[in-house]
Automatic annotation (TrEMBL):
This is RNase H type-1 domain-containing protein. GO terms for molecular function: nucleic acid binding; RNA-DNA hybrid ribonuclease activity. SUPFAM superfamilies: Ribonuclease H-like. It holds the Pfam family RVT_3. Gene3D superfamilies: Ribonuclease H-like superfamily/Ribonuclease H (3.30.420.10). Residues 98-219 form the RNase H type-1 domain. InterPro entries: RNase_H-like, RNase_H-like_dom_plant, RNaseH-like_sf, RNaseH_domain, RNaseH_sf. It comes from Lithocarpus litseifolius.
Length: 226
């Protein structure tokens, strides 16, 4: 480009004019838009060439794979949550006591339900009783626990896990909240009973894992003890 004009170059005068910044600036903006777009796409590898199409397909497949992997992780997490909510048997040589309470306002009584099962899930004993109505649901659950522990002792069971779906009551038992004005007396009596066992642990379970005890509590509405 810098060769003499006689040798096929632009010549110094033309080259000086070509290198003028203002002249070059105007020339660039006189280029048609579609040409500028084509140049931009070429620089950014956005042209629909075989190489670029293949690269885009590879990226899309990678994104799809990552999405599917995320869905698998979510579904596994949901499955694990469901498994935690189900009833889980105790370890060998221990028994699990499940308790629950139910309110029957139309007959002014509440129901207490208890079921005791071994490590194989076999029912060792069940109970359904009703008592005069109480005002606080948590108090009903505390009394259900208080009834469940002596029932286990009646069956000569002394290695237990006592489980209910009332998180408030399970926490109160673990924290030994015996002075609570509403259900402290139920917690106190339950802890005294628990001290007479070789092993007595308290644990919380969701309602779906406590459905048998809940059914027994509802069943007590008939007035017949089980």
């Amino acid at each position: 480009m810098c060769r003499p004009k006689g040798d096929g170059g632009m010549g110094f005068r033309v080259l000086s004019k070509f290198n003028n910044e203002k002249c070059l600036f105007h020339k660039v903006f006189k280029v048609p838009h579609n040409v500028k777009l084509l140049v931009w796409r070429a620089v950014n590898e956005a042209l629909p060439t075989l190489h670029n199409l293949f690269r885009r397909k590879a990226r899309a497949e990678q994104y799809l794979l990552e999405f599917k992997s995320a869905q698998v992780r979510v579904s596994r997490g949901m499955a694990e949550t469901v498994r935690v909510a189900r009833w889980v048997p105790p370890i060998p040589n221990q028994y699990k006591i499940n308790f629950d309470g139910a309110v029957f306002s139309n007959v002014d009584v509440v129901g207490l339900g208890v079921v005791i099962r071994d490590a194989y899930g076999q029912v060792i004993g069940s109970l359904a009783e009703r008592i005069p109505i109480l005002n606080l649901a948590a108090t009903i659950e505390a009394l259900a626990c208080r009834r469940a522990l002596p029932f286990a002792k009646e069956l000569s069971i002394f290695d237990t896990v006592c489980e209910g779906d009332a998180e408030l009551i399970i926490k109160a038992l673990l924290d030994r909240e015996v002075h609570h004005p509403e259900y402290g007396h139920g917690i106190h009596d339950s802890l005294i009973s628990a001290s007479e066992f070789r092993v007595c642990k308290f644990s919380h379970v969701k309602r779906v894992g406590n459905i048998v005890a809940h059914f027994l509590a509802r069943r007590s509405k008939s007035g017949n003890k089980l």
